[in-house]
Design a protein that fits this description.
alpha/beta, TIM Barrel, eight-stranded parallel beta barrel, 10 helices, globular, binds 5-iodo-2'-deoxyuridine-5'-monophosphate, OMPdeCOase_dom, orotidine-5'-phosphate decarboxylase activity, pyrimidine biosynthesis
Amino acid sequence: MSSPHLRTYAERALQHKNPAAKLLLETIERKKSNLAVSVDVASAKDFLAIIDVVGPFVCLIKTHIDIIHDFTPSLITDLQALSVKHDFVIFEDRKFADIGNTVALQYSSGVHKIASWSHITNAHPVPGPSIISGLSSVGLPLGRGLLLLAEMSTKGSLASGSYTEAAVQMAREHRNFVIGFIAQRRMDGIGTTPDESIPDEDFLILTPGVGLDVSGDGMGQQYRTPRQVVLDSGCDVIIVGRGIYGKDPSLVEAISAQAQRYRDDGWAAYLARIKP
Ligand code: 5IU
C-alpha cells in the first residue's frame, strides 16, 4: 500500500481503530478542512466567540484550558455544544510530562477533568513509556487518543534526532492509544523498522508553527506556510493560532476571512499532495 500521506483522509479513516483518530480523519473529510485553530486567549467570552466564528472552517479546535482566567465547568458544556454545532474535534494541548500515576490524575481530575471532554491530548515522551500507560489507563476506556511530541516548532528545540526516533518507537509499541505526533514532518519510517503487525503504519501528524504572513513571533516561534507543511513535509493537520485571530478577538469578519484563507490553503496543498 502507498505511504499514508499519499492516500485520502477517508481511506485512512477506515484503517484506524482508535475512535479519536477515526473521528478526526472522518471530520477532515466531511468538512474538507485540515485546519485546526489554537485558541490561546485568556477570557472565556473571547474563547467561545472565536470558536463560534472559526467553527465552520475547522476540523479541530486546540485548547489550553489552563490559560482561561475565568474558567468554570460550564465553559466545557459551552465548548461541547459548539463542537456539536460546528462538527469539530477537541484537542487539549496539555503536554503532560510527569510519571504515570501523576499524569493519570492530572488527566482525569483537578479543576479541568480533561479526559472527560477532550477527544485528543498530548504528552512529552521524556518520562519514557510509563507516561503512555498512565494516560491510557484513563483515556483508552473513554475512546480518547494521544499524540506524542516528537518535534517542536521552536528555534533550538531539543526534540530532534535520537529523541524523535525514541518517541516514534514508543508510539509503535502503543498503537491502540497513540494515534500520532505533534511534529514538523512525517514520522513514518523514522527510527527502527515499522511494526510489521500493522499492515500500513499510519501516524497522524499535527503541526503547529503555521503562518502565511510572518516568519516568527520574536519569542522563538517559527512559521511555515500550509503548503510547506502539508505538501512538502507531508503533515496532516495545520495548527494555526495568532495567524487567524490576531490580537483582537472582536474582529469577527477578519477572523472568519483568515480562517477561510488557511482552510483553503491547507486543503489545496492536500489535494496537490494526493494527486496521482
Ligand atoms: N505549539 C507550537 N509549537 C510546538 C508545539 C505547540 O506552537 O512545537 I508542541 C502550540 C503553541 C500554541 C500554538 O498554542 O501551538 C501555536 O500558536 P501560534 O500559531 O499563535 O504561534
